[in-house]
Input
Amino acid sequence: MMYLLDILLISLTAALINNFVLYYFVGICPFVGVSRKVEMAFGMGCAVTFVISIAALISWSITTMVLIPGAPLSSFIAGFFLPEQAAAKIDLTVLSYIVYIFAIASSVQFVEMYVRKYFPMLYGSFGVFLPLITTNCAILFACLTIMSHVTGVDNPADAWDLGRAIALAFFGGVGFTIAIVIMSGIREELELCDVPEPFQGAAITLVIGGILAIAFMGFTGVDSGIRAALMPSVTEQVSTMIPPRPDVLAILDLSSQVRQP
Amino acid sequence: MADSPTAFERFVQGILPENPVYRQLLGLCPTLAVTNGMKPALTMACSVGFVLLCANIVISLIRNLLKPHLRIVIFTLTIATFVTIADRFLAAYFFQMSKTLGPYIPLIIVNCIIICRCEVCASKQGVVTAASDAIGQAIGFGLALSSIAAVREILGTGMLFGIRVLPTAWPDWVIMVLPPGAFITLGLLLGFVNWIGIIRSKGSAK
Amino acid sequence: MRSFKDSNLFQAWLVLLLATAFGCALAGVQTKLGPVIEANKTRETLAKIPALVLGEDQAQQLSRQKKSLSITSRTIKIEKNGIKKFYTVYDAFLEGTLAGHVAKASGQGYADKIELLLGLDADARTITGLFILDQKETPGLGNRIIEKPWRNQFLGKPSATRLVVVKGNPGKDNEIDAISGATISSRSVTGIVNKTITDIKAQLVSPPKETADEQETSHNENGKIKENT
Output
């Protein structure tokens, strides 16, 4: 039950609250470059989601099996050369980035082969964008976030398992898709508008992205609200329940100094 | 081949005319992420400069041995190694800054600037040309980051480099140091740079 | 006619050679910088402990007198509703006597996780210090939980009653004034403090003897590991 709640919160956070594009600024290049048509954008979003999930699976497995100190595979192999104690302390995390980028490159290759075989039309329309997903920051960012939750925790019991890792990756991709599809919808409308010449293209996209980011900021705190609502017995974290609107008013109140609570 | 720019020309090109952020629109991810203060922005610019320089030099040294199939693999391997070195160095000697920059240092690996320069320049030119291209692009990148960071930090906190420049009466535009401020600042500055470009090309056309 | 350079065998060797060279470079970097990074991480926490347990003034006085605190760390395990939670606790000894405890705790803030160090006196009756290790709250608003004046409110508060956040004048002994414009962040920090005290207070004063989970490592405050005498 707690596990499902955790997964729900991770998914919600990755997709909406801390949206990969609008909060963490990863995946900006396709966001600005590919978002002219809704179909293209949606296809790109799905491809990225697919690649991110596979890459997260590979990188989580390698991190837990090989890279962290005391990982099963590396200590097993090192056990042939070194005494037991030293073998358990072999720390290969310095190789993490190289491993992740190759995991991503292989995932992209895999997805490319799959799409070429089963969706040839889609493959044709994608053109050069599919291999370009390798340089999409969002995927490496997902792998890095998973790594920080596996290696950066004080206590091994808090380290993320595969379910949480895949949840973050998949819903991060979903969030990316949401953002890019919204942007492409807006840009399709924008083609009928009179944008000043210096702003045409990337500049206006970025400004609109900023306004979208403001909109998505409205989701902040939803996760702590859900946590407080669904786990009243365990969450003695806040001393009172948080009623949503009065606190939002509290934040606006004192910076604008106009409204009375 | 007689037309390819000299080392010095590449150096100058990288700073403004072929600025990686404003003209080529590469490396937007770190540009938005680390520019909420001048210090993180300059640290990022130095890191990218270091990786770009080392990667360009190494690739340029082995350029005659590269073949189309495996060159992307070799680029990636080289860049990832130097990024790991830069990341570890920052974590060891600039721990606080390393925590502030967080995952954005490893994201230099997929920064389009570096792969682009390796592909376009380092794999085809000699070491000196590659190195000067790297330095030029790095300075250009640093300039772009600083311009955005200056705007965001001054408007958002009233400080520059942690030193107060605006009077305390200034109501901090907190939005500037939050994600939306990054997007809007970059969009407006990009529009501004484009506008200057248009005026200059109209002026020279007359 | 393909030269040797074009052959796949050569290319494979090239990649392998490069990989080995880079691997060695990285191994070198790890050997040299790994310990420095580890020391940075532990120092970040350990350097704060004197001020958290003894208060700023006394800690400075101590360092002028060149005395040092001996710090041991242990893990406290809490089991509640079938969920296990672990706290890292540092016990500080001054010249043999227990001076206080520092617990590392984390919880959900407004934007993301907040990690903090909570200092308690030797019998865990009073809060002696609070330090925010990591937070990602709104700059200029929730961010202000790191400021000293606000954190100093917690000093001297009794651990027996739950702390409550109020907006305005904190009157009673267990009231904390919220940061204007950052009520939720203030409440989150107070909540983490409350929860930590509730969870570990019993085990702090009388540690259970048979638990196999506790590992005692001895550090002095510069992060160097001392032998357990």
Residues 7-201 of chain B form one domain.
